[in-house]
Amino acid sequence: MSPYQHGEVFVTDDGAEADLDLGHYERFTSTRMTRANNFTTGRIYDAVISKERRGEYLGATIQVIPHITDEIKARVIDVASRADVAIVEVGGTVGDIESLPFLEAVRQLRHEAGPQNAISVHVTLVPNIAAAGELKTKPTQHSVKELLGLGIQPEILICRTEKQLSRSIKEKIAHFCNVPVGAVISAPDVSVIYELPIALHAEKIDEQITERLNIWSRPPDLGAWHRTVEIMKNPPRGIATIALVGKYVHLRDSYKSLHEALSHGGLANECKIEVKYLDSETIDASNVERELAGVDGVLVPGGFGGRGAEGKIQAIRHARENGIPFFGICLGMQMAVVEFARHVCGVAGANSTEFDPNAGDPVIDLMPDQRGVKAKGGTMRLGAYRCALVPGSLAAEMYGSSEVSERHRHRYEFNNAYKERLEQSGMVMSGLSPELGLVEMIELPKHVHFVGCQFHPEFKSRPHAAHPLFTRFVRASLSRRDARSRTETRTDVSESATSKLVH
């Protein structure tokens, strides 16, 4: 899945790959998603064709209705049966050819479940025409008309808009879309995404949903959301600047969970995170110091392929040699191993066989049982794997545990043939896979904060429960910022005093 087409590829515990929307749902609901929580047109058609080949339809002619729609409904009902309330999103735009079978399935589900067990909520756009200073309701009217033509009457309209809808605009939408005025909900742009639950609560959408579904509920406690927004808007400890050195920086949604996890780490430390995106393809020995000037921490994320790898290595070396807090994730950890092997252990030919299949010293390599697998997906470690933490290590201290479970999405591994050599030079392999004996975490104890992990901790971070690896990385970055500020202050005072003496 190309990040330039899908944005970030989100991974669940059971190894499903999905787009970044599923990550947002996990962060907002604190519900663990699985492969059952996301299904595409391809998966639906594949399942129906497989059933037909097995003879489950007894030779009947396979049609979109009922076979495709029944398969969609069965999957929705399966997930809904394990929850109190299921929120089902049909992606795309009303009128898309791809969405039609799903919308028909939704229509049938609404009818079969009954009025107090299912409601239709339509998210629509009310654009602002800047030249005229006017909000236009026509797109919403046409969208609802299209839905009505498909047999679906939206009961609540969530209107995406740049600014709050006036009463007169809401009345106009309600009149033409056949809904009560109170069911027209403003969803204005917010400066902080975690402000959205507060904004929607102010529009009383929660009251309407619980009333229509006949659910008794206590009033919501939005205290945690209010605290989150307050810290992000008025951070007591100011701003920490983190350099994110990657090769997909031209589409920042490629690193959506990373960006959010950094924000969560900032929340835990009562500061705001400013992410400085740096293209690793443009970094080399001649400009790395300039590019990283003024940053409080360096994060090198995951990725695939050799493009920009040397730039990442230069950034890691600069962070290691200059005491800048460093955090390497997946490929970022692998590049930290390559950098350490080259410049500390003297292994000049250190590299990953992902970039150079004939590397003289493949410190990063495929496992032996992976080499015969030709399909790329067949060599991936996907989903949750256990990681045993070395007692007394920084990793064990950060987690406060001896064993954790984290999500993976990668193909190449640390080559254990080089483990002893790197350990002799000061690198600690602080996390190991109990089943596979693979290196999951590395650290440099003599550095202010130098940590790498083979997994993706950003997938499990939440706004009200920041991941410990991000919390500690941000804390170390804040400490560097404060130390640098004190040094600059002393320098300014000294230069001022010297200037007065000369005068």
UniProtKB/TrEMBL annotation:
Give the compositionally biased regions (Basic and acidic residues): 481-493
Composition skew (Polar residues), residue ranges: 494-503
Q: What is its EC number?
A: 6.3.4.2
Keyword set, alphabetical order: ATP-binding, Glutamine amidotransferase, Ligase, Magnesium, Metal-binding, Nucleotide-binding, Pyrimidine biosynthesis
Occurrences of domain CTP synthase N-terminal (ranges): 1-215
Write out the ranges of the annotated region (Disordered): 481-503
Q: Identify the domain of life.
A: Bacteria
Q: Name one GO cellular component term.
A: cytoophidium
Checking NCBIfam families in the record gives: PRK05380.1, PyrG
Q: To which protein family does this belong? A: Belongs to the CTP synthase family.
The protein here is known as CTP synthase
Tell me the lineage of the source organism: Bacteria, Pseudomonadati, Myxococcota, Polyangia, Polyangiales
